[in-house]
Design brief:
heterodimer; A: 349 residues; alpha+beta; 2 domains; five-stranded antiparallel sheet; four-stranded antiparallel sheet; 11 strands; 30% helix; B: 917 residues; nine-stranded mixed sheet; nine-stranded antiparallel sheet; 32 helices
Chain lengths: 349, 917
Amino acid sequence: MNSNGATSSVSSGPNEASRRNSKRPKYSKFTQQELPACKPLLTPGWVITAFTLIGVVFVPIGVASLLGSRDVVEIVYRYESECIPQSFSDKKLEFIQSSETNKTCTRTLTVPKHMKAPVFVYYQLDNFYQNHRRYVKNRSDKQLRDKKSERTTALCTPEATLNGSPIVPCGLIAWSLFNDTYQFSRNDNGRLLSVNKTNISWKSDRDNKFGKDVYPKNFQSGRLIGGAKLDPNKSLSEQEDLIVWMRTAALPTFRKLYGRIEADLLANEKITVKIENNYNTYSFGGKKKLVLSTTGWLGGKNDFLGIAYLLVGGLCFFMALLFMIVYLAKPRPLGDPSYLSWNRNPSGL
Amino acid sequence: MRRCIYINDSDLTLDLYCDNRISNRKYTLLNFLPKNLWEQFSRFMNKYFLLIACLQLWPLITPVNPASTWGPLIFIFAVSATKEAWDDYNRYLSDKQANEKEVWVVKQGTRTRVQAQNIRVGNIVWLRENDEVPCDLVLIGTSDPQGVCFVETAALDGETDLKTRVIPSACAGITSELLHRIKGVIECPYPDKDIRRFDANIRLFPPFIENDLCPLTINNTLLQSCYLRNTEWACGVAVYTGNETKLGMSRGIPEPKLTAVDAMIDKLTGAIFLFQLVVVIVLGIAGNVWKDTEARKKWYVQYPNESPWYEFVVIPLRFELLCSIMIPISIKVSLDLVKSLYAKFIDWDEEMYDPDSGTHAHATNTGISEDLGQVEYILTDKTGTLTENKMIFRRCCINGVYYGNETGDALKDVELLRAVGCNCPEVIKFLTIMAVCNTVVPLKSKNGEVCYKAQSQDEEALVLAAGRLHMVLVDKTGNMLQVKFNALTLQYEILDTLEFTSDRKRMSVVVKDCQSGKIILLLKGADEAILPCACSGQQIRTFVEAVEQYSQLGLRTLCLAWRELTQDEYHEWSLLFKEASGTLVDREWKIAEVCQRLERDLEILGITAIEDRLQDGVPETIDILRRAGINFWMLTGDKQNTAIQIALSCNFISPEPKGQLLLIHGKTEEEVSRSLERVLLTMRITTSEPKDVAFVVDGWALEMTLKHHREAFTQLALLSRTAICCRVTPSQKAQLVELLKRCDYRTLAIGDGGNDVRMIQMADIGVGISGREGQQAARAADYSIGKFRFLKRLILVHGRYSYNRTAFLSQYSFYKSLLVCFIQIFFSFISGVSGTSLFNSVSLMAYNVFYTSIPVLMNVLDKDLHEKTVMQHAQILYYCQAGRLLNPSTFAGWFGRSLFHISTLSKRAKKAKKEHS
């Protein structure tokens, strides 16, 4: 054997040793896959503890957010059918499309609880598809932003040009701008509650997406009149109703900010609302609602978050309990190889 | 079927064959773009993505910016095209270097320097020491007076030992000046890729030896890419040039292996594609209906009353585009990326580094690591794979007398030394065969020591042992062979060498004893190949018993025999042999037939027994892998008893009474079939018992069963967890692999020698041991490792992790794209089924690339269990083998998960969005 070893070393030569060393893989934690890694073994103890912990954390959060949501006072008033005079109750479409009819309707709302300023005024539309593909793409962001590109109206058909000159702002979205208006006054003293309509849109929209030097042009002057008209002397960045409307809603039911009442409303106070009911939702059966709401630490009134937290927390407690019962009643040995494969029995080895 | 090459005659052969310009390039500058694109688009997935990308160019239907699809698509295409281009450029550079290298070529009788690419078939090329051979040459002259030269063939077959090449006998004795003017014709077959065969003839024209047809073999050639070593110069005639050389012909891309995981992913992709079609059709119809009933009422949408004819396909196509992300474009890229990382981890692994040979594990095939974790059958070679292939002469039996039985080492046996000392003729003959009957090359080093270069480890062991017993092989120059016995120098002239082939299982040399002038045939080989040829009077029982006894000890036995020939007999046979050697068709078979005539009436001298020790850690490795549920089959060319002994010593089978061996044997076809039936019956009965049952079959019985009882044998294979197949040929090994593959088993073949190459290539995974028998197996294999014991780490650690990671990654890719796709589908229900995209292009792209692809790639470092835990509880591999992490039901789980996540998300979103907009 010795002589054998000698021959092989003669044949391999003296520089073999150094070459061998250089061939040896370099050590590093990455190459040797030794970076710290772990995967917790889901033993019953672990699972039950984890579920209980999640429950313990989630239930209080749920309770807190539910309480936070309950503090928000909200008045929702649906008016699209109430604001139709009796005589037009069968011909709603005719009523809304006619320019002769008196569309003002005055109603009284009762404040259920004290509402701290600012009180936000929203309009809510139902069954209105601002997210329809044909609608949502029908705008020209370039034109809205920049005076020089008022001719980029390619995406805006059929509301792109009027007799060859471009419409600013073009497109179906701007064309169908919401045009109901609300006026509020206190019932007891008849004093007008002013609605602040500034800063109701996103600041980034005002500053970046709607140009300060872009003025409405040829707007709502075609054969078909869609919605509201715009003051041609105000630049687009000042037309906040348009800016709010142009930020299209993702769902067919949506609220948009109308303005803010910067005064406290007292509990049981009566408020008179004068609604100009102009907007046509009757052709497609959409609802219109007026919403007055305060905000809490979670935003507007929304019980969902609290309920969701409570539900998940409760579910976790339930699961913990269930696993505990299963574990106590029918424990399964840990690491039983017969669970490794369903079509072979390792114990038969 | 042959080409005629006129040596050194530029008029006759110039334009018939290609020049020596080597081109490995796949592309040229002009055809790169179209060809590469064509290749990439031949894959279904790519076609699909291109179609989607083209549809997106139509602004009426595209939901997002077309750049969000074109970007990744172009990126993916650019990456693979760049990779191809880079590889091709490197090939071009190396081709250029080889093509423009200057070599000495004889032109019009003088040696001139020309670029290698200008060598023509028929040119005479001169090489200096350490030169690379530029094309396939037939050797016609060397600096050595005997016409021998040495070449290193590492680039060709990976074997690092020097090989001897000799000039054909017709060219012997031609001076180097005459070589410039030599004329003649070489008849050789059309170019092929067999680097072990070259069946050709040479005939020299006057004034050289006239009309004497001289056979050429592979030993007379210098093949392209070899290096000339230890020889001052050599020259040869170019026979194959350029891409027609043996090396050029054997180049080629092996068929890509598809892993079970990949096949499963393809299937799931198909299912998702069908699902997508259904979604598109349903939503498309719903969209058209909604448009006609509802959307016309919405005055603010202003649907025109008249629409173009293609209106009805617009909405379905929009949904097709919205849903196209269901099949993630990133999956192929990320899978390729992680797979190459798995392969790198194998290369980098320190624990699979073999310090003895200085080799580390290497993954040649980077795409099939997952399959390692799903192996069900391992088919292993014995010699060199389970054993070290370090042969040591241990015992012998000469003329019925056993030596080395007491001490376990015949070289220390006093009896043998005494027998040698007193010139016992049988023992002398025995030692002569050990020293002479081989192809070992003795090399004298500078300090006078002799060392040996051998291709066969057995031969080296025998020569070394003979040397220890004072019969030293000193020198072999040309046909002359010198042996020193004590102080005596004996000379032999080698007349013919009848080479070893795996069919013949023996080799012999015909030598002429220069002292007595006798012609002797010296023979060694497997006992069953030699004992039947014993002369009629001889008792062979003792030898059979010796073979039996040795193989029970796990020793390799060789039978040595001797026969004296008469002059006439030899000359008569010699003519036949020459004729057979000169044939171009079926040469090997014809030679074997001729050899048969000489190898008869032998005087059997004795048996040698050589020990081949088990490698370190083999029993443990087999034990752990068997606990992991992997079945082992041993396929060996060795004898049954030796194989069983080795199998016992490495835990392959258990000894009685726990284990039971069932033998399939028989002399005739009927006996074999009866035996097979019996074994099958026993096997069926014992499957319920906790017993290790293994069947043993030898090559002949295997051939019978595979031919006539394939069904029954397949059943047996399914029942048996262990099998030993001995005396099997390389093609039978491959057949067995194929048999198991047919039964839908994942097979892994591991071997180290050239005889395992076919099995390695056939198996789902081929593992080569870069061992002492050369690199052939390791080069053909998908993975090469230094030692058998690394197999357990390769399978249990790398294979298992790879499987787990790929299973997660592929399903996660589908999950995340299904998730975003379901959002789009749900959104379409609340956006008037009009095909609006909820996301804009940037968020969609960011979601696909930055949020869900790159972070998830980190899972290549994921480990569910520690390596040590896996090694200790190898049963865990069952989980991977059964494919429990990636199958239709787990995929359905991920599908359901994405659905569930979406339904909670959308509920939440609906509620929350009502609040503010």
